[in-house]
Structure to design on (226 residues):
């Protein structure tokens, strides 16, 4: 099955700086890669996703890049704000509606 | 904005007791998922429903866990008997379709087994 690894496990940045979180996946057949933000005591919230036919996707301060050859994808947050502080999870899914595999999460702290 | 509803939000139970969680997916979403999230880890799928049918329960500990979605809308996840290792967040998610579609999560139920 699919295996997803996520780095770093914790990340601390100064407000206004950029943050990058990286994930690798094991099964080259995976075709859907979402990113979730989870705040304390809440469920994961989908913030951006990318499909395997696209190399990059951007939504305001958030962007995701996908390198299918290397089997890794990254989340980029620019101009970070204190409210970006949360745990971020990447995930990967094989075609056919199979189970989503999640990374272990990255705790992002944005210092004012 | 439509959301996935879950109850209760918190549950404390003693080991060997039975416990049940409820989920109401976003209206019109045919696919429903139950995940377990242990503290410090990502969610792991327990069971996936397409309408009222189970399509994946390979990771569900069937000796003590059961799940149903009788009318293809809301769903119940049960644990009997609960064990200390079951302490976790239980998350419900739904999607419009099973294939190639975004999953939206509810707020979760935090279970503590004492």
């Amino acid at each position: 099955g699919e295996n997803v690894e996520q780095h770093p496990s914790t990340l601390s940045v100064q407000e206004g700086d950029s943050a990058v979180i990286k994930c690798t996946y094991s099964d080259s057949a995976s075709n859907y890669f979402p990113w979730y933000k989870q705040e304390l005591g809440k469920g994961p919230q989908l913030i951006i996703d990318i499909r395997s036919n696209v190399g990059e996707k951007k939504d305001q301060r958030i962007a995701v890049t996908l390198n299918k050859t290397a089997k890794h994808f990254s989340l980029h947050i620019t101009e970070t704000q204190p409210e970006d502080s949360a745990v971020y999870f990447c995930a990967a899914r094989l075609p056919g509606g199979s189970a989503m595999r999640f990374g272990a999460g990255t705790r992002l702290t944005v210092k004012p | 904005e439509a959301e996935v509803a879950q109850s209760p939000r918190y549950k404390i139970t003693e080991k060997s007791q039975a416990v049940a969680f409820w989920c109401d997916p976003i209206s019109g979403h045919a696919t429903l998922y139950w995940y377990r999230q242990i503290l410090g880890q990502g969610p792991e799928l327990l069971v996936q429903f397409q309408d009222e049918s189970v399509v994946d329960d390979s990771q569900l500990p069937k000796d003590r866990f059961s799940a149903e979605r009788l009318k293809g809308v809301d769903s119940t996840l049960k644990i009997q008997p609960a064990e200390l290792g079951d302490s976790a967040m239980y998350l419900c998610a739904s999607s419009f379709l099973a294939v190639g579609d975004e999953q939206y999560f509810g707020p979760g139920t935090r279970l503590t087994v004492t």
